[in-house]
Specification:
alpha+beta, three-stranded antiparallel sheet, ACY2 Aspartoacylase, AspA/AstE_fam
Length: 138
């Protein structure tokens, strides 16, 4: 599957549709070249691996008591280090990230995830290596 965004629910954006078309075209080009017998060399690429979903801070009644900090808003895939701000309480208190490694939040403050109790998803950046790839000759 291919998920392309961000875009608000129920909105069709031309720029996002164009990105999706390009991604699908690259995928189809790869399949065609692979089927024609092209050999692809080994490669390494960085990806983001999901660590955990993070909920909004809540009170004992389950009500949200803090919002995404302005410095985190619209910063999907950007590094967050120990002490960086994550949330801002309605009283103005900053709630920082407390962790021993750099994380890369994504799906930050997405409207579709409020009901799922998800403020963002913490990811880690890792490298994946692929061996050469070629269609076996029969």
């Amino acid at each position: 599957g291919v998920e392309v965004g961000p875009q608000p629910q129920g909105v069709a954006r031309a720029d996002v549709l164009d990105k999706m078309r390009k991604i699908v075209k690259h995928g189809l080009d790869f399949v065609q070249l692979f089927n024609e017998g092209k050999e692809f060399p080994p490669c390494t690429t960085e990806v983001f691996k999901i660590m955990e979903k993070v909920d909004y801070p809540r009170n004992k009644n389950g009500e949200i008591i803090a919002i995404i900090h302005p410095k985190l808003q619209d910063q999907d895939w950007q590094p967050v280090k120990n002490g960086d701000p994550l949330f801002l309480t309605l009283d103005g208190e900053v709630i920082p990230y407390q962790g021993n490694c750099t994380v890369y939040p994504t799906f930050i403050n997405e409207a579709a995830y409020y009901e799922k109790k998800q403020a963002f998803v913490k990811t880690e950046k890792i490298k994946l290596t692929a061996k050469h790839l070629r269609l076996p000759v029969s």
